[in-house]
Amino acid sequence: MNVFLFYVTLAIYFGATAAYLIYLFKPSKNLGKFAHWLIVFGFIVHIIFTFDRFIEAGHTPITNLHESLSFFSLAVVGLFIIFESRFKMQVLGSFVVPVATVLLLVSSLFPTSIGPLNPALKSGWLAVHTIVAFLGYASFAVAFGASIIYLIQERFLKKKVLNGLFQKLPSLNVLDEINYKCLTFGFPLLTVAIISGAIWAESAWGSYWTWDPKETWSLITWLLYAVILHGRLTTGWRGRKAAILSIIGFAVVLFTFLGVNLFMSGLHSYK
Fold this sequence. Notes:
The chain is mainly α. It is 77% helix and 0% strand. The longest helix is centred in the middle third of the chain and has 34 residues, at 125-158.
């Protein structure tokens, strides 16, 4: 049942991705509604899959790469739906929903079996640390999508291509606002994730910080987004610079989450 729900979710996400991409070039009210409700339906099935795995495993299902990538995808879709509804911007789905779909697709490449839980993971901090971390990461994913659209729209303006796709994309001000809101939502969550992780590490390994590769790259990610937020609040970093930094920031997030686990060994390594 659990595997069936997973692949149903993946199929729906692929369908939603196709619908949003078609909407990008041939927007219509009916297609926009179809894409929206399809991703909402997929999100509901994804929640059921996650809850079913929670019941089967007996713990928060974010303990290996299959589960973590799946939950990352779930968080991205959930936050996207909120931003899409808030800003009435269905075109954002053309850039964010594919990210969630790829994350879920990659998760299918890793073992799906539920094995014994590592003793270090048997803690109440598991849910707190991982959930807030992935919500923060998901916020940065939405900012990434908005930033890609910003750069495309800005290029159209510079080349004075004021028809076609240009007319279908949101204004630069709206895109910059989304970028900023994602940053102010995601950065505090990332901060809480690092603090809760340090507390958890002390109880599990007897030290708040060990400069493990995952810890080091988490700190790099936090510092990068701290610089971006500080620049926006104090020196007025907006527009193109903020968009480029958000894209770079999300690339660092992906490496921190996935690259470290695949290419570096440490206390946080899991597959």
